[in-house]
Design brief:
The structure is a single chain. The protein is of the alpha/beta class and 432 residues long. It is 30% helix and 22% strand. The protein has twelve helices and 19 strands. β18 and β19 form a beta hairpin. α4 crosses α6 and α6 packs parallel to α7. Bound molecules: (4S)-2,6-dioxohexahydropyrimidine-4-carboxylic acid (DOR). (4S)-2,6-dioxohexahydropyrimidine-4-carboxylic acid (DOR) binds next to loops.
Length: 432
Protein backbone atom coordinates (compact mmCIF):
# COMPACT_ATOMS: atom_id res chain seq x y z
CA UNK A 1 0.00 0.00 0.00
CA UNK A 2 1.27 3.43 -0.93
CA UNK A 3 0.96 5.47 2.28
CA UNK A 4 1.84 9.08 3.03
CA UNK A 5 1.27 11.12 6.15
CA UNK A 6 1.29 14.88 5.89
CA UNK A 7 2.01 15.85 9.46
CA UNK A 8 0.77 19.08 10.95
CA UNK A 9 -0.80 20.84 7.95
CA UNK A 10 -3.40 23.59 8.16
CA UNK A 11 -6.29 22.83 5.79
CA UNK A 12 -6.91 25.92 3.65
CA UNK A 13 -4.56 27.73 6.07
CA UNK A 14 -7.29 27.63 8.73
CA UNK A 15 -7.61 26.17 12.23
CA UNK A 16 -5.21 23.93 14.13
CA UNK A 17 -2.67 21.75 12.33
CA UNK A 18 -3.88 18.25 11.49
CA UNK A 19 -2.39 15.02 10.19
CA UNK A 20 -3.59 13.93 6.76
CA UNK A 21 -3.23 10.24 6.08
CA UNK A 22 -3.16 9.32 2.41
CA UNK A 23 -3.49 5.72 1.31
CA UNK A 24 -3.88 4.30 -2.17
CA UNK A 25 -4.53 7.60 -3.85
CA UNK A 26 -7.21 8.76 -1.45
CA UNK A 27 -7.37 10.87 1.70
CA UNK A 28 -7.95 8.07 4.23
CA UNK A 29 -8.29 10.09 7.42
CA UNK A 30 -7.78 13.59 8.71
CA UNK A 31 -7.07 13.73 12.43
CA UNK A 32 -5.61 15.81 15.21
CA UNK A 33 -1.88 16.42 14.82
CA UNK A 34 0.03 13.44 16.21
CA UNK A 35 -3.05 11.20 16.26
CA UNK A 36 -2.28 9.31 13.04
CA UNK A 37 0.21 6.45 13.43
CA UNK A 38 1.55 5.70 9.97
CA UNK A 39 2.53 2.23 8.86
CA UNK A 40 6.24 1.44 8.77
CA UNK A 41 6.57 2.04 5.05
CA UNK A 42 4.68 5.29 5.09
CA UNK A 43 6.41 8.38 3.80
CA UNK A 44 6.11 11.34 6.16
CA UNK A 45 5.91 14.94 4.98
CA UNK A 46 6.51 17.35 7.88
CA UNK A 47 4.22 20.27 7.09
CA UNK A 48 4.98 22.35 10.22
CA UNK A 49 1.76 24.33 9.97
CA UNK A 50 1.98 24.94 6.21
CA UNK A 51 -1.14 25.42 4.08
CA UNK A 52 -2.74 22.36 2.46
CA UNK A 53 -4.93 22.99 -0.60
CA UNK A 54 -6.50 20.90 -3.35
CA UNK A 55 -4.07 20.57 -6.29
CA UNK A 56 -4.25 23.43 -8.77
CA UNK A 57 -5.99 23.11 -12.14
CA UNK A 58 -4.81 25.22 -15.09
CA UNK A 59 -7.34 25.74 -17.85
CA UNK A 60 -4.78 27.40 -20.13
CA UNK A 61 -1.29 25.96 -20.71
CA UNK A 62 0.83 25.82 -23.86
CA UNK A 63 2.93 22.65 -23.81
CA UNK A 64 4.16 23.10 -27.41
CA UNK A 65 4.27 19.37 -28.18
CA UNK A 66 3.94 18.38 -30.97
CA UNK A 67 5.97 20.79 -33.05
CA UNK A 68 7.96 23.14 -30.85
CA UNK A 69 9.80 20.79 -28.54
CA UNK A 70 12.69 23.26 -28.62
CA UNK A 71 10.59 25.46 -26.28
CA UNK A 72 8.60 22.95 -24.18
CA UNK A 73 7.63 19.29 -24.16
CA UNK A 74 4.88 17.44 -22.39
CA UNK A 75 7.69 16.13 -20.17
CA UNK A 76 9.19 19.50 -19.24
CA UNK A 77 5.82 21.25 -19.03
CA UNK A 78 4.45 18.53 -16.77
CA UNK A 79 7.46 18.98 -14.50
CA UNK A 80 6.87 22.73 -14.39
CA UNK A 81 3.23 22.07 -13.54
CA UNK A 82 4.03 19.66 -10.72
CA UNK A 83 6.60 22.07 -9.28
CA UNK A 84 3.99 24.83 -9.48
CA UNK A 85 1.44 22.85 -7.46
CA UNK A 86 -0.72 21.72 -10.39
CA UNK A 87 -2.42 18.33 -10.62
CA UNK A 88 -4.26 19.00 -13.90
CA UNK A 89 -3.51 21.21 -16.89
CA UNK A 90 -5.28 21.88 -20.16
CA UNK A 91 -2.86 21.91 -23.09
CA UNK A 92 -3.87 24.45 -25.74
CA UNK A 93 -4.45 23.37 -29.32
CA UNK A 94 -2.06 25.76 -31.12
CA UNK A 95 0.60 23.11 -31.63
CA UNK A 96 2.13 22.02 -34.94
CA UNK A 97 0.22 20.08 -36.19
CA UNK A 98 -2.77 21.77 -34.61
CA UNK A 99 -4.82 19.69 -32.15
CA UNK A 100 -7.89 19.80 -34.38
CA UNK A 101 -8.37 16.03 -34.75
CA UNK A 102 -8.49 12.86 -32.68
CA UNK A 103 -4.96 11.74 -33.61
CA UNK A 104 -3.25 14.80 -32.14
CA UNK A 105 -5.40 15.08 -29.00
CA UNK A 106 -4.92 11.37 -28.31
CA UNK A 107 -1.15 11.77 -28.71
CA UNK A 108 -1.07 14.64 -26.20
CA UNK A 109 -3.32 12.78 -23.77
CA UNK A 110 -1.26 9.58 -24.00
CA UNK A 111 2.07 11.38 -23.59
CA UNK A 112 0.69 13.15 -20.53
CA UNK A 113 -0.26 9.83 -18.98
CA UNK A 114 3.13 8.31 -19.75
CA UNK A 115 4.92 11.21 -18.06
CA UNK A 116 2.45 10.92 -15.20
CA UNK A 117 3.31 14.09 -13.28
CA UNK A 118 0.05 15.93 -13.90
CA UNK A 119 -3.20 15.10 -15.68
CA UNK A 120 -2.75 16.57 -19.15
CA UNK A 121 -6.07 17.31 -20.84
CA UNK A 122 -5.75 18.30 -24.48
CA UNK A 123 -7.82 21.27 -25.62
CA UNK A 124 -9.33 20.73 -29.07
CA UNK A 125 -9.29 23.44 -31.71
CA UNK A 126 -12.65 24.96 -32.59
CA UNK A 127 -11.73 25.45 -36.25
CA UNK A 128 -9.58 23.43 -38.64
CA UNK A 129 -5.98 24.60 -38.43
CA UNK A 130 -7.09 27.50 -36.19
CA UNK A 131 -7.93 29.25 -39.44
CA UNK A 132 -11.40 30.39 -38.41
CA UNK A 133 -12.98 29.05 -41.61
CA UNK A 134 -14.46 25.65 -40.89
CA UNK A 135 -15.41 23.88 -37.66
CA UNK A 136 -13.07 21.13 -36.51
CA UNK A 137 -14.50 17.71 -35.69
CA UNK A 138 -15.38 18.58 -32.14
CA UNK A 139 -17.53 15.49 -31.66
CA UNK A 140 -14.77 13.10 -32.72
CA UNK A 141 -12.33 14.74 -30.33
CA UNK A 142 -14.87 14.74 -27.49
CA UNK A 143 -15.55 11.05 -28.01
CA UNK A 144 -11.88 10.04 -28.48
CA UNK A 145 -9.97 8.41 -25.60
CA UNK A 146 -8.70 11.90 -24.77
CA UNK A 147 -12.29 12.84 -23.90
CA UNK A 148 -11.79 16.47 -24.91
CA UNK A 149 -14.02 18.75 -22.86
CA UNK A 150 -12.58 22.17 -23.64
CA UNK A 151 -12.32 23.65 -27.14
CA UNK A 152 -10.44 26.78 -28.08
CA UNK A 153 -8.61 28.43 -30.96
CA UNK A 154 -6.54 30.26 -28.34
CA UNK A 155 -3.90 32.46 -29.87
CA UNK A 156 -6.61 33.30 -32.40
CA UNK A 157 -10.14 34.53 -31.93
CA UNK A 158 -13.07 32.66 -33.47
CA UNK A 159 -13.98 35.92 -35.14
CA UNK A 160 -16.75 34.77 -37.50
CA UNK A 161 -20.01 35.08 -35.53
CA UNK A 162 -21.68 32.30 -37.50
CA UNK A 163 -18.88 29.83 -36.76
CA UNK A 164 -18.88 30.85 -33.12
CA UNK A 165 -22.63 30.39 -32.97
CA UNK A 166 -22.35 26.90 -34.47
CA UNK A 167 -19.50 25.95 -32.12
CA UNK A 168 -21.59 27.01 -29.13
CA UNK A 169 -24.58 25.04 -30.41
CA UNK A 170 -22.49 21.89 -30.89
CA UNK A 171 -20.88 22.37 -27.48
CA UNK A 172 -24.25 22.11 -25.74
CA UNK A 173 -25.05 18.89 -27.58
CA UNK A 174 -21.64 17.45 -26.69
CA UNK A 175 -21.60 18.70 -23.11
CA UNK A 176 -18.30 20.54 -23.64
CA UNK A 177 -17.15 24.15 -23.24
CA UNK A 178 -15.88 26.63 -25.82
CA UNK A 179 -13.16 28.96 -24.51
CA UNK A 180 -12.81 32.13 -26.53
CA UNK A 181 -9.65 34.14 -27.12
CA UNK A 182 -11.53 37.42 -27.34
CA UNK A 183 -9.82 39.67 -29.85
CA UNK A 184 -11.65 41.28 -32.75
CA UNK A 185 -8.92 40.96 -35.39
CA UNK A 186 -10.05 43.99 -37.38
CA UNK A 187 -9.33 46.14 -34.32
CA UNK A 188 -5.84 44.75 -33.67
CA UNK A 189 -4.23 44.91 -37.11
CA UNK A 190 -0.58 45.79 -36.42
CA UNK A 191 -1.33 46.23 -32.70
CA UNK A 192 1.69 46.06 -30.43
CA UNK A 193 0.77 47.31 -26.97
CA UNK A 194 -2.18 48.46 -24.86
CA UNK A 195 -3.69 51.49 -26.56
CA UNK A 196 -3.25 54.52 -24.37
CA UNK A 197 -1.04 57.43 -23.52
CA UNK A 198 1.99 55.30 -22.71
CA UNK A 199 1.98 53.31 -25.98
CA UNK A 200 1.49 56.52 -27.96
CA UNK A 201 4.39 58.25 -26.22
CA UNK A 202 6.72 55.27 -26.68
CA UNK A 203 5.76 54.71 -30.33
CA UNK A 204 3.88 51.42 -30.13
CA UNK A 205 0.78 50.86 -32.29
CA UNK A 206 -2.23 50.73 -29.95
CA UNK A 207 -4.16 47.56 -29.05
CA UNK A 208 -7.59 48.81 -28.02
CA UNK A 209 -9.52 47.37 -25.05
CA UNK A 210 -12.60 47.39 -27.27
CA UNK A 211 -11.10 44.55 -29.36
CA UNK A 212 -11.54 42.27 -26.35
CA UNK A 213 -14.74 43.75 -24.97
CA UNK A 214 -16.69 43.70 -28.23
CA UNK A 215 -16.09 39.96 -28.71
CA UNK A 216 -16.90 39.14 -25.09
CA UNK A 217 -20.20 41.04 -25.39
CA UNK A 218 -21.03 39.39 -28.72
CA UNK A 219 -20.25 35.91 -27.47
CA UNK A 220 -22.27 36.33 -24.29
CA UNK A 221 -25.24 37.17 -26.50
CA UNK A 222 -24.54 34.18 -28.77
CA UNK A 223 -24.19 31.86 -25.75
CA UNK A 224 -27.47 33.13 -24.36
CA UNK A 225 -29.33 32.32 -27.57
CA UNK A 226 -27.62 28.94 -27.93
CA UNK A 227 -28.25 28.09 -24.28
CA UNK A 228 -24.53 27.29 -24.15
CA UNK A 229 -21.77 27.63 -21.60
CA UNK A 230 -19.00 29.99 -22.62
CA UNK A 231 -15.55 30.51 -21.15
CA UNK A 232 -13.50 33.65 -21.73
CA UNK A 233 -9.71 33.27 -21.84
CA UNK A 234 -7.29 35.78 -20.26
CA UNK A 235 -9.54 38.72 -19.39
CA UNK A 236 -7.49 41.92 -19.34
CA UNK A 237 -9.69 45.02 -19.38
CA UNK A 238 -12.02 46.91 -17.07
CA UNK A 239 -14.69 46.95 -19.76
CA UNK A 240 -14.64 43.15 -20.04
CA UNK A 241 -15.35 42.93 -16.31
CA UNK A 242 -18.34 45.25 -16.85
CA UNK A 243 -19.63 43.05 -19.67
CA UNK A 244 -19.15 39.87 -17.60
CA UNK A 245 -21.01 41.42 -14.68
CA UNK A 246 -23.88 42.34 -17.00
CA UNK A 247 -23.99 38.87 -18.59
CA UNK A 248 -23.82 37.02 -15.28
CA UNK A 249 -26.55 39.29 -13.93
CA UNK A 250 -28.77 38.12 -16.79
CA UNK A 251 -28.04 34.49 -15.97
CA UNK A 252 -25.86 33.89 -19.04
CA UNK A 253 -23.65 30.85 -18.40
CA UNK A 254 -20.28 32.50 -18.84
CA UNK A 255 -17.07 31.97 -16.89
CA UNK A 256 -13.77 33.78 -17.15
CA UNK A 257 -10.11 33.49 -16.27
CA UNK A 258 -7.37 36.00 -15.55
CA UNK A 259 -3.66 35.34 -15.86
CA UNK A 260 -1.16 35.99 -13.07
CA UNK A 261 0.63 38.54 -15.28
CA UNK A 262 -2.54 40.56 -15.76
CA UNK A 263 -2.87 40.64 -11.96
CA UNK A 264 0.59 42.10 -11.47
CA UNK A 265 2.21 43.72 -14.49
CA UNK A 266 1.18 46.93 -16.23
CA UNK A 267 2.09 48.74 -19.42
CA UNK A 268 4.77 50.59 -17.42
CA UNK A 269 6.92 47.66 -18.52
CA UNK A 270 6.77 48.95 -22.11
CA UNK A 271 9.39 51.57 -21.39
CA UNK A 272 12.18 48.98 -21.66
CA UNK A 273 11.05 47.74 -25.11
CA UNK A 274 11.98 44.26 -23.82
CA UNK A 275 9.83 41.65 -25.63
CA UNK A 276 9.77 39.46 -22.52
CA UNK A 277 6.82 41.74 -21.70
CA UNK A 278 5.06 41.17 -25.02
CA UNK A 279 1.94 39.09 -24.49
CA UNK A 280 -1.51 38.62 -25.99
CA UNK A 281 -3.67 40.25 -24.66
CA UNK A 282 -1.17 42.97 -23.83
CA UNK A 283 -0.21 44.23 -20.39
CA UNK A 284 -2.79 46.89 -19.59
CA UNK A 285 -3.00 50.05 -17.48
CA UNK A 286 -2.77 50.15 -13.68
CA UNK A 287 -6.54 50.71 -13.38
CA UNK A 288 -7.19 47.51 -15.36
CA UNK A 289 -4.87 45.52 -13.10
CA UNK A 290 -6.65 46.86 -10.01
CA UNK A 291 -9.98 45.86 -11.54
CA UNK A 292 -8.73 42.33 -12.37
CA UNK A 293 -7.84 41.83 -8.71
CA UNK A 294 -11.21 43.04 -7.45
CA UNK A 295 -13.14 41.02 -10.03
CA UNK A 296 -11.25 37.86 -9.08
CA UNK A 297 -11.92 38.52 -5.40
CA UNK A 298 -15.66 39.06 -5.90
CA UNK A 299 -16.13 36.22 -8.40
CA UNK A 300 -16.98 38.14 -11.59
CA UNK A 301 -13.77 36.56 -12.84
CA UNK A 302 -13.95 32.90 -11.83
CA UNK A 303 -10.40 31.66 -11.81
CA UNK A 304 -6.70 32.08 -12.49
CA UNK A 305 -5.21 30.43 -15.58
CA UNK A 306 -1.54 30.75 -16.44
CA UNK A 307 -1.45 31.13 -20.24
CA UNK A 308 1.99 29.54 -19.76
CA UNK A 309 3.59 30.35 -23.12
CA UNK A 310 7.18 29.18 -23.59
CA UNK A 311 9.15 30.76 -26.44
CA UNK A 312 12.61 30.23 -27.89
CA UNK A 313 15.36 32.79 -27.23
CA UNK A 314 15.39 33.87 -30.88
CA UNK A 315 11.65 34.59 -30.70
CA UNK A 316 12.01 36.81 -27.63
CA UNK A 317 15.50 38.26 -27.85
CA UNK A 318 14.72 40.36 -30.90
CA UNK A 319 12.94 43.55 -31.83
CA UNK A 320 9.47 44.04 -30.34
CA UNK A 321 7.52 43.75 -33.60
CA UNK A 322 9.16 40.42 -34.52
CA UNK A 323 8.87 38.84 -31.06
CA UNK A 324 6.24 36.25 -30.22
CA UNK A 325 3.74 37.07 -27.48
CA UNK A 326 3.67 35.06 -24.27
CA UNK A 327 5.41 34.35 -20.97
CA UNK A 328 6.08 31.39 -18.70
CA UNK A 329 3.60 30.96 -15.86
CA UNK A 330 3.27 27.51 -14.34
CA UNK A 331 5.95 27.77 -11.66
CA UNK A 332 5.25 31.37 -10.70
CA UNK A 333 1.43 31.45 -10.68
CA UNK A 334 0.95 30.66 -7.00
CA UNK A 335 3.51 33.26 -5.94
CA UNK A 336 1.97 35.97 -8.10
CA UNK A 337 -1.48 35.18 -6.68
CA UNK A 338 0.01 35.30 -3.17
CA UNK A 339 1.66 38.65 -3.94
CA UNK A 340 -1.33 40.31 -5.63
CA UNK A 341 -4.30 38.73 -3.84
CA UNK A 342 -3.29 37.16 -0.50
CA UNK A 343 -0.81 39.78 0.74
CA UNK A 344 -3.22 42.70 0.19
CA UNK A 345 -6.05 40.72 1.88
CA UNK A 346 -8.20 40.30 -1.25
CA UNK A 347 -8.22 36.49 -0.94
CA UNK A 348 -7.51 34.11 1.92
CA UNK A 349 -6.14 30.62 1.24
CA UNK A 350 -9.65 29.20 0.94
CA UNK A 351 -10.17 31.78 -1.79
CA UNK A 352 -6.95 30.66 -3.48
CA UNK A 353 -8.31 27.09 -3.47
CA UNK A 354 -11.46 28.42 -5.13
CA UNK A 355 -9.77 30.34 -7.95
CA UNK A 356 -6.85 27.99 -8.63
CA UNK A 357 -8.50 24.61 -8.11
CA UNK A 358 -12.23 24.36 -7.44
CA UNK A 359 -13.64 26.74 -10.04
CA UNK A 360 -11.37 25.64 -12.91
CA UNK A 361 -12.21 21.99 -12.13
CA UNK A 362 -15.93 22.84 -12.18
CA UNK A 363 -15.68 24.84 -15.40
CA UNK A 364 -13.96 21.95 -17.20
CA UNK A 365 -16.08 19.30 -15.50
CA UNK A 366 -13.24 17.35 -13.86
CA UNK A 367 -14.86 15.12 -11.27
CA UNK A 368 -11.68 14.24 -9.33
CA UNK A 369 -9.99 17.64 -9.10
CA UNK A 370 -10.77 20.68 -6.98
CA UNK A 371 -12.41 18.44 -4.41
CA UNK A 372 -12.83 19.27 -0.70
CA UNK A 373 -10.04 18.31 1.71
CA UNK A 374 -11.96 15.47 3.36
CA UNK A 375 -11.66 11.75 4.01
CA UNK A 376 -12.65 9.67 1.00
CA UNK A 377 -11.65 12.34 -1.54
CA UNK A 378 -8.91 11.83 -4.15
CA UNK A 379 -5.50 12.89 -2.84
CA UNK A 380 -4.76 15.61 -5.39
CA UNK A 381 -3.05 18.04 -3.09
CA UNK A 382 -0.58 20.88 -2.83
CA UNK A 383 1.29 21.90 0.31
CA UNK A 384 2.30 25.56 0.36
CA UNK A 385 4.74 27.33 2.64
CA UNK A 386 3.10 30.76 2.86
CA UNK A 387 5.98 32.39 4.75
CA UNK A 388 8.84 31.31 2.50
CA UNK A 389 10.15 33.49 -0.33
CA UNK A 390 12.15 32.67 -3.43
CA UNK A 391 13.93 34.46 -6.23
CA UNK A 392 12.85 33.68 -9.79
CA UNK A 393 15.61 32.56 -12.16
CA UNK A 394 14.37 31.63 -15.62
CA UNK A 395 17.29 29.31 -16.24
CA UNK A 396 16.40 27.28 -13.13
CA UNK A 397 12.75 26.71 -14.08
CA UNK A 398 11.78 23.27 -15.41
CA UNK A 399 10.58 24.61 -18.77
CA UNK A 400 12.82 24.29 -21.81
CA UNK A 401 12.30 28.01 -22.48
CA UNK A 402 13.20 30.67 -19.92
CA UNK A 403 11.01 33.65 -20.88
CA UNK A 404 9.82 34.70 -17.45
CA UNK A 405 8.93 38.37 -16.90
CA UNK A 406 9.72 37.91 -13.18
CA UNK A 407 13.47 37.32 -13.58
CA UNK A 408 15.27 38.26 -10.36
CA UNK A 409 12.08 39.11 -8.49
CA UNK A 410 11.69 37.94 -4.91
CA UNK A 411 8.22 36.44 -4.47
CA UNK A 412 6.23 35.01 -1.56
CA UNK A 413 4.84 31.46 -1.15
CA UNK A 414 6.67 28.27 -2.08
CA UNK A 415 5.22 24.92 -3.17
CA UNK A 416 6.59 22.36 -0.69
CA UNK A 417 4.92 19.29 -2.19
CA UNK A 418 2.40 18.25 -4.83
CA UNK A 419 0.52 14.95 -4.74
CA UNK A 420 -1.29 13.44 -7.71
CA UNK A 421 -3.64 10.65 -6.65
CA UNK A 422 -1.55 10.11 -3.54
CA UNK A 423 1.80 10.03 -5.32
CA UNK A 424 4.37 12.74 -4.68
CA UNK A 425 5.04 14.52 -7.97
CA UNK A 426 7.14 17.33 -6.54
CA UNK A 427 8.79 17.93 -3.22
CA UNK A 428 10.98 20.80 -2.02
CA UNK A 429 11.47 22.06 -5.56
CA UNK A 430 12.39 18.66 -7.00
CA UNK A 431 10.39 16.26 -9.13
CA UNK A 432 8.99 13.11 -7.52
O1 LIG B 1 0.62 35.62 -25.31
C1 LIG B 1 0.09 34.66 -25.80
N1 LIG B 1 0.80 33.61 -26.23
N2 LIG B 1 -1.24 34.65 -25.94
C2 LIG B 1 -1.88 33.70 -26.63
O2 LIG B 1 -3.07 33.78 -26.73
C3 LIG B 1 -1.12 32.61 -27.27
C4 LIG B 1 0.16 32.40 -26.59
C5 LIG B 1 1.12 31.51 -27.35
O3 LIG B 1 0.70 30.48 -27.86
O4 LIG B 1 2.31 31.82 -27.35
Amino acid sequence: MNEIVIRGARLYGEGDPVDVHVADGTIATIGEAGAVTPGEDAEVIEARGQVLLPGFVDLHTHLREPGREDTETIDSGSAAAALGGYTAVFAMANTDPVADNAVVVEHVWRRGREVGLVDVHPVGAVTVGLKGEKLAEMGTMAKSVAGVRLFSDDGHCVADPLLMRRALEYSTALGVVVAQHAEEPRLTVGAQAHEGERAARLGYTGWPSSAEESIVARDCVLARHAGARLHICHVSTTGTVDVLGWAKGLGIDVSAEVTPHHLLLTDERLATYDPVNKVNPPLRAGADVERMRRALADGVIDCVATDHAPHAVQDKDCEWAAARPGMLGLQTALSIVAETMVRPGLLDWRGVARVMSERPAEIAGLPDQGRPLAAGEPANLVLVDPDAEWTVRGAELASVAANTPYEGMRLPAVVSATLLRGRITSREGKIG
